[in-house]
From TrEMBL:
<keyword id="KW-0472">Membrane</keyword>
<protein>
    <submittedName>
        <fullName>CysZ protein</fullName>
    </submittedName>
</protein>
<dbReference type="InterPro" id="IPR059112">
    <property type="entry name" value="CysZ/EI24"/>
</dbReference>
<dbReference type="GO" id="GO:0009675">
    <property type="term" value="F:high-affinity sulfate:proton symporter activity"/>
</dbReference>
<keyword id="KW-0997">Cell inner membrane</keyword>
<feature type="transmembrane region" description="Helical">
    <location>
        <begin position="28"/>
        <end position="54"/>
    </location>
</feature>
<keyword id="KW-1003">Cell membrane</keyword>
<feature type="transmembrane region" description="Helical">
    <location>
        <begin position="168"/>
        <end position="189"/>
    </location>
</feature>
<keyword id="KW-0764">Sulfate transport</keyword>
<keyword id="KW-1133">Transmembrane helix</keyword>
<dbReference type="GO" id="GO:0019344">
    <property type="term" value="P:cysteine biosynthetic process"/>
</dbReference>
<dbReference type="InterPro" id="IPR050480">
    <property type="entry name" value="CysZ-like"/>
</dbReference>
<keyword id="KW-0812">Transmembrane</keyword>
<dbReference type="GO" id="GO:0000103">
    <property type="term" value="P:sulfate assimilation"/>
</dbReference>
<feature type="transmembrane region" description="Helical">
    <location>
        <begin position="210"/>
        <end position="233"/>
    </location>
</feature>
<dbReference type="GO" id="GO:0005886">
    <property type="term" value="C:plasma membrane"/>
</dbReference>
<feature type="transmembrane region" description="Helical">
    <location>
        <begin position="142"/>
        <end position="162"/>
    </location>
</feature>
Length: 253
């Protein structure tokens, strides 16, 4: 348990290091904020639209509750609405990161290269990844990761109807699952520069799960704050680069 807590705090520290790196170089912060701004507008619009129609959607997905008494029907549809919004935000955040990385591929590759080459000793024989290839890899990975998120979202949605558990344990599990998927996206560029594919990335991060979650959970939670992603995403990209570099070089003990 002590090892897990220590590793988790190490991961949190890597995110903090990411913030330190971009704040010391405002150019990196600005570069990372531009594509994030474009995607933020789309995501906020989607959340607002969902919030406006959530009562109708919750009613549509719970037709079986039409004949129940008022209190039970209201509680069931509240749970349904809560689960729907949670699933939308979780999947939307993964899409947000994926779309932002695709749009801003050259920007985020510049951040990753600057962090590794300037602060971490560089990457010998690093592959030069074109924007087109980066976008294709990012789109392919996004489809797979969002698919995984949906597979988890379905049982979590159903569990959301369980009193108490649906409003306590389920959100925690959802955060852990989606934070893990977010970490896979945020470490894509360092692995791609080394010619390593998605399955290698997933296995590497899984080996040090507590470190990965320590980095990814606060990143995920901070990105839930409106407009925070403009600052968080560049920092998370820098921190994710440090995380990937250290895991690949066994520098995290």
């Amino acid at each position: 348990m002590i090892r897990v807590l220590r590793d988790f705090s190490t991961g949190v520290g890597l995110l903090g290091q990411g913030f330190s790196l971009v704040f010391r170089s405002p150019k990196l912060l600005l570069i990372g904020a531009v594509p994030a701004l474009l995607t933020t507008v789309l995501l906020i619009g989607g959340v607002i639209g969902l919030a406006v129609w959530i009562d109708e959607i919750a009613t549509w997905v719970t037709p079986f509750a039409d004949d129940w008494n008022d209190g039970l029907r209201a509680a069931t549809r509240f749970a349904a609405g809560f689960s729907i919004i949670g699933a939308f935000v979780a999947i939307g955040l993964l899409l947000f990161t994926a779309i932002t990385l695709i749009i801003g591929g050259p920007f985020y590759e510049h951040i990753a290269e600057t962090v590794e080459d300037t602060h971490l000793g560089g990457v010998p024989e690093a592959e030069q990844v074109s924007w087109l290839r980066s976008a294709a890899v990012g789109a392919r990975d996004a489809v797979l990761l969002v698919g995984i998120a949906i597979l988890f979202a379905i049982p979590l949605f159903a569990a959301g109807f369980i009193p108490v558990v649906g409003q306590t344990a389920v959100p925690v599990v959802a955060v852990l699952v989606n934070a893990s998927l977010l970490a896979i996206e945020l470490t894509a560029i360092p692995f791609t520069r080394r010619g390593l594919k998605l399955d290698v990335r997933r296995r590497t991060l899984r080996k040090r799960r507590a470190v990965t979650l320590g980095f990814a959970v606060p990143t995920y939670l901070l990105c839930l704050i409106p407009l925070a992603a403009l600052v968080v995403l560049p920092a998370a990209m820098a921190g994710g680069t440090v995380l990937a570099h250290r895991l690949l070089h066994d520098q995290i003990r």
